[in-house]
Amino acid sequence: MRKKSEKEEGAGRRHGGRYIYEELRRQILTLQLKHGEQLDEISLATTFGLSRSPVRDAMARLVSEGLVTILPNRTAIVTPFEIEEFPNYITALDLVQRAVTRLAALHRNDEDIARIEAANEAYMEMVYKGDFSAMTERNKEFHLAIAAAARNGYLAKYYDKLLSEGQRIQHLQFDFMTRQDAPSKLGRDHDELIAAIKSGDADLADTRAHEHTMLFQNRFLTFMQRNLLKDMELNY
Length: 236
Known about the structure:
Layout: H1 6-29, E1 38-39, H2 41-48, H3 52-64, E2 68-70, E3 76-78, H4 86-107, H5 110-129, H6 132-150, H7 153-180, H8 183-186, H9 188-199, H10 202-227
């Protein structure tokens, strides 16, 4: 048997690391891996049939996205979602989402609009299919298409991180949303964002982005009140 070259082995590690990253990310976002659950490098390497090196690479990517946290004792865990931090998350999301959407209205071109509309169509396709995991991914891609039109890499990078953190929240509420609203209604709030960006009206885009954030907040709080915190008072 021919021995693999260092180049081939390196490519295999990168491919393995990408697979582990994508699979762990999917399990975290769909809540198969629970908040605070420990992630052991050795156990994961055994599970995936790979060395610890690609596992470590995958974990580093998940840490950069805020989905995994490394504790002071070097233990890795799925980043907990603290309900008391939700108002702070919403504040950050609102500010960045408004800034990104405002800039997109000022700087977008025809190609940007086409990408934004195509991303929204892909999202709506998953809405009609009821594929919650794909819905969160397509929703993120829609908003990142807006960020690309904003032409500000700093904001886009932070927006990406906020959207990734929000995917777990979305997965919790999507089943509730589809039971409350007709599929066509779920994506219609995107239409107003798109129209504002196309109009080139930065103030209107800012307003629509804020309304979109508040819609996300209200849906999540309604979900929490009806499903998880019926006996607790939410003071937001």
